[in-house]
Design a protein that fits this description.
GO terms for molecular function: acyltransferase activity, transferring groups other than amino-acyl groups. The protein is α+β, with helices and mostly antiparallel strands. It contains 4 helices and 7 strands.
Length: 164
Amino acid sequence: MSRITIRPAAPSDWPAIWAMIEPVFRAGDTYAVATDITEDAARALWFDGPAACFVADGPNGLLGTYYIKANFSGHADHICNCGYITAAAAAGQGVATAMCTHSLTAARDLGFDAMQFNLVLASNTRAVALWRRLGFATIGTLPQVFRHPDLGRVDAYIMHKHLS
């Protein structure tokens, strides 16, 4: 992969972020997001609401995006959650690896002690393999929790990694 720069997302990045995340949300096969989500609701979910939103910038434009947010509130707000989406044209080029690696440092810098993914679909084998390669443990399986548009009901994993 050519040079990737990961930086905080700017408001001017939103149109390109939306162009990446909209088809993923519409497909309904990886995220537990309504397939008819509005752009405003998607912006609140991905860009405005989280503690931080980042983009992976390449020589010809944005290659991916991710957010970090507290997974819980109150006495469990030291655990974060992230969402990652790679631009379709950049799939398989190391963008997700670069974003996740960056997010581990960014999460520590934001004061989080651990990262937890609450719903990693068993059918999303590339993501499962990547998270495992980066040190995430599967701490639970949620049986048939996701209604996949092509596969029917599929299992999902809860994956966790301490950041210290």
